[in-house]
């Protein structure tokens, strides 16, 4: 795979550079995901510096991502198609099961592989311009970036099948209502909100964040009896961390800022 680092920008911001901002910078091609860009995303998350506590994933220009770079879509034999898809799986797994929680800031087109990419993040914030589609059906292809595993978990199998069969496009409000995004904000504010959430996430105990990223989705797929056992093991490990003990002591000592506040 060719590397295209110019299409991906990674910067470290905030207190002690704890937040990684990973930005698709291929706006002229609507952040279409070339093989090189997928490899660059994979490498960015596999090589995240150890001090980073959360990441914001976003796209430059008017769209988050137009999905697979269709100019690279050529006649592949079955084995090449298999390996292409598996390459996406490695990259998007590096995001979902990587070192830090990822908040995606969505705007404009979040389509095809762009939606698959967004679905690999942990928290999605969409602005009012966001729209969601799976045009694979009309291009004669199928999802290959983990979409058939991740997207039904957000919106259900029936809605995903409808999107691919009929070309249905969901707007930002429906997208939030159905579960594509957990947050909906006014136009132009997705990045600011995503940064605010990433900074909040970065204050959590790293082991709790790890449990939410790595244990929770697996527990949710286990038979209930196995899930309860995994939960108990994870809970025991998390609460034994010195950081957790200090946090509980702080609450019991009435230290400022540790109480849960009513939603505004
Ligand atoms: C692209 C791509 C692309 C734009 N690959 N070059 N994805 C799709 O089927 C979506 C295809 N794209 C679109 O429907 C539209 O481009 C958008 C709605 C996203 C944006 O529209 P617009 O009017 O802002 O931009 P545009 O004029 O359509 O595109 C601007 C340029 O980006 C143009 O190139 P130019 O050289 O003529 O300027 C487009 O060709 C280029 N461009 N989208 C390549 N996707 C792991 S499997 C995943 C399978 C899939 O993702 S299938 C869905 C693919």
Gyration radius from CA atoms, angstroms: 19 Å
Bound molecules: 3-methylmercaptopropionate-CoA (MMPA-CoA)
Provide the β-strand percentage band: 5-15%
Total domain count: 2
**Main sheet: strand order:** 1-2-3-4-6-9
Instruction: Give the overall shape.
Output: globular
CATH-assigned homologous superfamily of the largest domain: 2-enoyl-CoA Hydratase, Chain A, domain 1
Structural class: alpha/beta
Got a strand count? 9
Structural summary, described in words:
There is one protein chain. Helices cover 47% and strands 15% of the residues. It is of the alpha/beta class. It has two domains: 2-202, 2-enoyl-CoA Hydratase, Chain A, domain 1; 206-252, Lyase 2-enoyl-coa Hydratase, Chain  A, domain 2, CATH 1.10.12.10. Helix 1 runs parallel beside helix 2, helix 3 (113-119) packs across helix 5 (147-155) and helix 5 crosses helix 6 (157-166). The mean pLDDT is 94. Bound molecules: 3-methylmercaptopropionate-CoA (MMPA-CoA). The site of 3-methylmercaptopropionate-CoA (MMPA-CoA) has 22 residues, from strand 5 and helix 4.
Could you name the key traits of this structure?
264 residues, alpha/beta, 2-enoyl-CoA Hydratase, Chain A, domain 1, Lyase 2-enoyl-coa Hydratase, Chain  A, domain 2, 2 domains, 47% helix, globular, binds 3-methylmercaptopropionate-CoA (MMPA-CoA)
